[in-house]
Structure formats: C-alpha cells, structure tokens
Write a structure and sequence with these properties.
The structure holds 2 protein chains of 2 kinds.
Chain A: E1 2-7, E2 25-30, E3 35-40, H1 50-60, E4 63-68, H2 73-81, E5 85-88, H3 96-104
Chain B: E1 8-10, E2 18-19, E3 31-35, H1 36-47, H2 52-59, H3 63-82, E4 86-90, E5 94-96, E6 100-103, E7 109-111, E8 129-131
Parallel strand pairs in B: 1-5, 3-4
Antiparallel strand pairs in B: 2-4, 6-7, 6-8
Helix pairs in contact in B: 1-2, 1-3, 2-3
Classes of the chains: A alpha/beta, B alpha/beta.
Chain lengths: ~100, ~140
Amino acid sequence: MKTLITASDNNTEALFDKRFGRAAWFCVYDEDSKDIKFIENMNVNANNGAGTKAAEKAVELDIKKIISGDFGPKAKDLLTKFQIQMVIIQEDELTINQIINTLTG
Amino acid sequence: MPRHRRLRKVVAPPGFHGFKPYGVVDISQDKVELLYEEYEAIKLSDYDGLNHENASKLMGVSRPTFARIYESARKKIATAFVEKKEIKSVYGNALLDENWYLCNECNARFTIPRGRSQQQCALCSSANTKNIKGEK
C-alpha cells in the first residue's frame, strides 16, 4: 500500500510540508517494499487547481493514504471519491523520516 | 477539573486561511486566531441572518454558549482591525460535517474511506481513536 507525504525537499531529512497542492515534493512511501521515492510537484506555482492536480496525481500513482497538513474542498471531494485516506497532522517541524517512523511503528 | 467543551458543529470550514491588513507600516507580528466555530457563528448570525436561538441549535450548543462564541468572534475581529493584526483561521473545538476521526495518541486527524474497516489510527496504528462526527 502506498502512502504519499507532502515534503518541502527531496530527501528524508526534509521538513514535512503542511500544504497539499503546493508542497514542493511528494514523498511516496511503499509499505510493502519499504521503498521511498520523491516526486516533484509540477503545480507549486499554478494559479489555481493545484490541489485538484495533486489529487489526480495521487490517483494516477495508486496512492491509498495521503499525509498532509490541510486539504482544500476540491481536493477533499476528489480524494473521498477515489477512496483515498486523508491524514492531517498539525504539528510543525516534523521531518519525513519521523513521519515514516511513526507510520511503521 | 472544568467540564469538557462540547464540540461545535461547523457545516464547512472557512474558505480562507487568514486575512492580512495592507497599507500598514508597522504591521504587528502577532496574529489573531479566529476559531472555526467563531467563523461559523459570524456566518450564521450576520451573513445568514439567523437569530441566536436558531443558530445555536444548528451548532449544537446552548443559546448562551452561542452568544459567547459570537461575542468572542466579534472581539477578535475588532482587535484585528484596530490593532492592525493578521487574522488566522484555526481549527478550535469544531466538529466538521464530514467523517473525520481523531487519534488520541498522536493527535492526527484522518478519514476512513468506504470499504475499509480498520478502526485504528492511520498514522501510528493506535486503536485509541474517536469519531469527531459521531458524538453530539
């Protein structure tokens, strides 16, 4: 099962980004193969629809769970439709590594 | 120990993250935190034109409590105007009109999509979670 975490940079020491559509990088963590991949978000500076595009990207990548700080109304609708689990963390200063560690327990 | 706060029902969270004054030279660094339920109180009362009695029923609190939330919302907005502060919308004690769960261990909020039965936290796998829609 794949999990997407919004990140501010492309390494596991990078800080978690609390924005969904406008996060610089998406970290894709595969729970089965323990594989960590980083995908650049092409829509960081889009005028509109960044959340929707990010959600579409997640569907395309077959993501089942998304960890971010907030989801806009459009992204939320889309993710609900595609049955993708949304997780909201409101703590600041978390790194990708810390999140993956909590995730794996 | 004080009685716990009943969660206030909020139909939709505010469509913004905040408001900033412009044309200000000495902008104050601290922000006013407007809670979701305060936004909802202003919306129901001033935008939708409901009276406090009906608005309080919609939010699932008593009329006096609604009046206090409303009062606090006005106070915060007035403070932001006069003291040239930024308004930031924060979660507060709201209960959103969607099926969200809260983990009591790591404070993460998450949804459980249809077709998935697990009741554990999506982040730390703790079973100590609660539905923030179900309770009244």
